[in-house]
Write a structure and sequence with these properties.
By secondary structure, this protein is an alpha+beta fold. The protein has two domains: about 130 residues, no CATH class; about 110 residues, no CATH class. The chain is about 30% helix and about 30% strand. It contains five helices and 16 strands. The strands form four sheets. The protein has a six-stranded antiparallel sheet.
Length: about 300
């Protein structure tokens, strides 16, 4: 009786089947791996884009509202007039989203041992204010230079801070009011007198309001190639522009950033897109991007 054996054809057939199964298994494992890399990359990118939008939104919350602009090649356009259709991609350094920031740090003040005492209250005593000499209530103005210097590392007495009256003069374009040298709505402060709670301006306002904010810097967001940058520590009222400021990197591998307004300027929307090298490799594409949007209500 013959012992069971395999013919050459049967052996070849088995080898072919095993090869097919092996290639299918490899393809399945490879797809699972690429799917894992893609999902992990998307989750990481989602968190990164969300963090950037939260940062920009918080900065915008503390802006002087009429100062928020879109800058295109040296021309400042009020964000109130920018829609998604007319808004420009921040795709190079000639386009940016800019605003004048409120000095909320000095307004919050310093802990003096028993309580948090404000550097400035935001309220003027109009009966004691005249011309360039302004008197404020419930403030310790000596805190302001100390706080501003600790943040900016510059001379806090060289017209670093400026004052803005939200219900004061509002005529002129947004560029004339905030972004030219000697802007009509921002007034540089020459000195603070802590003993009398007064400040002296470098030039006289056309009119005074009882409410005010201080500012020590303008801010901006721009896209430098694929790097989204925050620009700060520059003062238009001292003839400085964004090229004079400091730059912080918010995120890399950013493909798009847009800012525009809705509801007559009461809402600012942000739209950001980014990419990831591992995802591009897994998908075998060079045009993939993940996008996210956020809203700031003013």
């Amino acid at each position: 009786m013959r012992k069971p054996s395999f013919t050459l054809i049967e052996v070849v057939f088995v080898v072919v089947i095993l090869g097919i199964l092996g290639s299918l298994s490899s393809e399945i494992v490879l797809r699972i791996y690429y799917s894992y890399i893609t999902q992990r990359g998307i989750q990481s990118l989602e968190i990164r884009l969300k963090t950037v939008l939260e940062q920009v939104g918080k900065y915008t919350k503390h802006s002087i509202k009429p100062s928020v602009v879109l800058l295109r090649s040296g021309n400042y356009q009020s964000i109130n007039d920018v829609t998604f259709q007319t808004g420009a991609l921040l795709q190079d350094r000639s386009v940016g989203y800019f605003w004048i920031g409120k000095d909320i740090e000095s307004q919050q003040g310093i802990w003096n041992g028993t309580q948090l005492f404000p550097g400035y209250s935001g309220v003027l005593d109009l009966s004691k204010s005249n011309g360039v000499d302004l008197n404020t209530t419930n403030s310790d103005l000596s805190y302001i230079p100390r706080i501003v210097n600790s943040i900016t590392s510059i001379d806090p007495y060289n017209q670093t801070s400026a004052i803005y009256f939200p219900y004061g003069n509002s005529t002129g374009t947004v560029q004339e009011r905030f972004w030219n040298n000697n802007p009509s709505s921002l007034f540089p402060i020459s000195s603070f007198n802590s003993s009398t709670s007064s400040m002296t301006l470098a030039r006289r306002p056309n009119e005074l309001g009882d409410l005010y904010f201080l500012s020590y810097s303008a801010y901006g967001v721009r896209l430098n190639k694929d790097t989204l940058e925050l620009v700060w520590n520059f003062r238009p009222w001292n003839n400085e522009n964004f090229n004079s400021g400091q730059t912080l990197i918010l995120a890399n591998n950013i493909t798009q950033f847009r800012a525009w307004s809705e509801s007559g300027g009461s809402i600012i929307r942000f739209y950001i897109c980014g990419t990831d090298g591992d995802i591009l490799k897994a998908l075998g594409r060079d045009d993939w991007e993940h996008c996210k949007e956020s809203v700031v209500v003013r």
